[in-house]
Amino acid sequence: MSLTDGELTVLGLLVEQPRHGYDLERVIEERGMRAWTALGFSSIYYVLDKLAKRGLIEATGAPPSGKSRVTFRATEAGRELCADATREALATLTPPRPRVLIGMANSPGLPDADVVAGLTKRLAALRGELADVRAARAAREPLPSAASAIFDYGEAMLRADVDWTQATLNAFTKESAVEKYDIKKAHKDLYSPSSRDFTVVEVPELRYIAVDGRGDPNTSPAYANAVEALYTVAYTAKFAAKATGRDFVVGPLEGLWRADDPSMFTARRKESWQWTMLISMPAWITDDMVHSAIDTAARKKDLPALGDVRPLTLAEGTCVQILHIGPYDDETPTLDRLHNRFLPENGLTFNGDHHEIYLSDARRTPPEKLRTVLRQPVRRG
């Protein structure tokens, strides 16, 4: 017959001596037990009812003024169970699983400033809680050995958490001070074009990781598998690079699209499309580093397209591009204007695959607000 932490706490106080609910509340507060129990005043009576129904405590007599002044004492069964549970509790190791560990695991998905702000807030709260515990202890000195040990433990845990949070914050702040490579900033002209007019840009040789495929991206499992594999390898490469002192922002998803007949794009005949999905890499991420990231990811996850990820160097040269705002299927008028008006009027023709850069996360962005760079390599025709 097991006991919850709250039940064992209340039962132990009643083994010590008979008490009513208000007395239990007072002792829990005075001994600093509030810091390591979740026992509010109302929950004390809930626990008393549970213990009484199990025959572990009993009322000592009729209350003179209602239930709130009923005094309870431990029964013989309660004393025996409390002793057994106490012996077990003294020897049991309970590994801490604070929520902050989940936060740290998810922190790569946040801006650095948000992580620093969260850790700073946590550090201030911990220091305040530690000051409160120390003040509560000072107000109750001298303390019995057991109560002193409880305060010692609480202070030790808080000091350790303060030290860990401060060290993590220091390390993260130091890392954040090192400028990360971000392709959107390094090549701002290529990733923030006008949404009104076509612009001609010179695209230098750039590094990517890539997966090839074909079919409708809305329905093809191969497309979804390719995107998942690319992001997995990109973040694996990022974390490996970060461990060596260099870091980068994982770039947006990009895609090269091709068809035997370019009119298939304006007609939105997606089943006939061939594609190469891309994520940019810094120039200092070598082919060996990409292959190492693929191998590392494969040991952790069984993803269908991991074996299809490859490094790619792309040199597009002269390109015409524009920013499309809105649903992907609404690109047709812009592409028609590019293919049938802008290129012929400027003596240009196709010189490579249609290139799209997805600046928005389609999972979180309304279709009418999606931002997509439409790029077409060209040459004089």
From TrEMBL:
- Which residue ranges does the record assign to the GyrI-like small molecule binding domain? 197-378
Transcription regulator PadR N-terminal domain sequence ranges: 10-81
Q: Which PANTHER family match?
A: TRANSCRIPTIONAL REGULATOR YQJI (PTHR43252)
| Name of the protein in its database record | Uncharacterized protein
- What organism, scientifically named, is this protein from? Actinokineospora fastidiosa
